[in-house]
Write a structure and sequence with these properties.
Helices cover about 25% and strands about 25% of the residues. The chain has helices at about 15-25, 35-40, and strands at about 10, 45-50, 55-60. A three-stranded antiparallel sheet has the order 1-2-3. A hairpin with a 2-residue loop joins strand 2 and strand 3 (about 55-60). It is built from two helices and three strands, in the order βααββ.
Length: about 70
């Protein structure tokens, strides 16, 4: 239905940068700090969760080097 809002996880886009930054700043003990420029440069690694048209969650992935070489 046109204009309806759905809940769900989706790939983040540049329109989500400010919301992602705000979420990260809201949970400094739980989330790794990220600058706005870092979020922009790595936007393809972020997912967002939307509920009622609001971004209420975010996650990012990163390939880490092996530990214990």
């Amino acid at each position: 239905m046109p204009g309806s809002q759905t809940n769900g996880i989706r790939a983040a886009g540049f329109k989500d940068v400010e919301a992602i930054y705000a979420l990260i700043k809201s949970y400094p003990q739980e989330l790794l700090p990220r600058s706005i420029s870092d979020i922009v440069q790595n936007i393809d690694r972020f997912l967002v969760y939307e509920a009622a048209g609001q971004t209420v969650g975010t996650a990012a992935w990163q390939i880490l080097r092996e530990i214990g070489r």
